[in-house]
Amino acid sequence: MTAEGAAAGQRRRWAAFQRRVFATPQFFRLWSAQVVTATGDWLGFLAISVVAARLGAGTPEAAIGIVLAARLVPGVFFSQLAGVLADRWDRRRLMVVCDLARAGILFVVPLVNSVWQLVLVSLALEAFTLLWIPAKEASVPNLLPAKHLTAANSLSMFATYATFPIASLIFARVAGALEGADREGWLGLLHLDKQGPIFYLDALTFVVSAALVFSLPLRHPRGAARAERPAMRWEGIFREYREGWRYVVVNPTVRSVNIGLATALIGGGMLIPLALVYAIEVLRVGEGGFADIVTGLSAGVGVGVVVLSLLQRRVHKHRMFARSVTGAGVCLLVASSLGSLPWVMLVAGAVGVCAGGMYVLGFTLLHEHTADEVRGRVFAGLYSIVRLCVVLALVVGPLLAALFDRISEVLFDRAIDIGIVVVELPGVRLTLWLAGLTVIVAGLLARRTQRAAAGTGPNGPAGAPAGDESLGD
Fold first, then answer.
1. What residue spans of 336-369 are helical by DSSP H?
2. Cα 261 to chain center, whole Å?
3. Virtual torsion, Cα 207, 210, 212, 217, nearest 10 deg
4. What's the fold here for domain 242-452?
5. How many whole angstroms separate alpha carbon 172 and alpha carbon 195?
6. What is the pLDDT of residue 327?
7. Is 212 exposed, middle or buried (0-12, 13-18, 19+ CB in 10 A)?
8. The predicted structure's pLDDT at residue 100
9. In which band, very low, low, confident or very high, does the pLDDT at 224 lie, cut at 50, 70 and 90?
């Protein structure tokens, strides 16, 4: 076989692999861009945290908290405005501009020398990220057939979270290589406190993403209608902003997914600040045990995503979404009732399986049941609700744990006897029980909303905005 024939065979095999796993080469390019940007986001998260701790002088924890809040809080208020812009503007160009803007911002981060400057940089990065995300999510159904959306969302979840260990490894290797670097000469101009090259590498990831997105054939099917839209005015933006939220409230499928995910995140989000406390105070396994619990949870998420991708055509998405939410709540309730690390790891894995399915199915339902002209606003609204619920859980969880701990100490001396069994009732366990019940309620609410929508057309009940026509389950 000639070299040309071998190369042609390799290209055919590669094209067949892309079709089998990613459905279309176009989605593969968008997914590749997401992998690159997610790696860049994690790199930036780690590097900015280190810089914040350095600039925070005697209060590094407060500095890190302020800087990270600058990345989290704006999404609560401005996500929907970003969705309006994603539905108005050319999404391909918007993503390219956002990637290049983030690259430019990262190039100046090494020059930052105060916490407030780092906060401004974080706000700017978050603003462009808020624009990029709804534009990306709204573009996915335009790049592959509807029957592949579940697998596509599984791959997107993998791209978002599986890149964290990759970014951590890159960060550690680069930081280690620069540990003894000479700061004189040209290298001294490139970095401050060893973080400069990491930010430059981070900026490069966004440049690569911009190049990948620029090659996408994204052409909106209603492009002519978009061209006829009047120039942007505040009253028009406000009207479209309200239309987006109205769609979220009126469309039964969108409402069901948002209720399920939002309420579940209020409960599940409490696990973030309390899992370490639970491992130390209840299981008495220290930080190592906490790492084991997180490992079990993460492995479960991976298993759930893979299994769902394999069984996607046999699954009724509406019912399985509600069951995944309810199952996550039941497993969380059980895990927080156990006192043995191996059993907690096992049940935490079950929580992850349900959580992975909940995430993938929720996004798939939104992709399938949302009209293209409002899809950006719907996903922006989802991200706004998600961030609000996570912030609420991070704040309320520790406060409830402290309150319940005091109540339990006064009423039960932090433990009760059930026959020959002594059940410890520290505040952290009571709070996790409440979190599990909250997630169970979220699943029941989602199921109730879906039942109310049964028998309606793709647009939901009368008066709902126009929906997507390809709603096959």
1. 341-368
2. 12
3. -170
4. Growth Hormone; Chain: A; (1.20.1250)
5. 11
6. 92
7. buried
8. 95
9. very low
Contact 467, 370 (CB under 8 A): yes
What percent of the chain is predicted at pLDDT more than 90? 10
Instruction: Tell me how long the chain is.
Output: 473
The whole-number pLDDT of residue 4 equals 63
Annotate 5-67 with DSSP letters as a single string.
HHHHHHHHHHHHHHHHHHSSHHHHHHHHHHHHHHHHHHHHHHHHHHHHHHHTTT-HHHHHHHH
* Tokens 């208020």, residue located: 77
**What tokens does 378 get?**
């719907």
pLDDT value at position 208?
Answer: 94
Give Cβ neighbours of residue 266 (< 8 Å, ≥ 6 apart).
389, 392, 393, 396, 435, 438, 442
Residue 160 CA to residue 378 CA, distance in Å, equals: 20
Please list the residue range(s) of the chain that carry CATH number 1.20.1250.20.
3-216, 242-452
Confidence of residue 187 (pLDDT cuts 50, 70, 90): very low
How many CB atoms are closer than 10 A to CB 376?
Answer: 30
Name the amino acid, one letter, at 9.
G
Please tell me the predicted confidence (pLDDT) of residue 346: 92
Q: Which class is domain 3-216?
A: mainly alpha
Angle of helix 163-177 relative to helix 149-161, nearest 10 degrees, comes to: 30
pLDDT at residue 468 in the model = 37
* Structure tokens given for 319: 């019912």
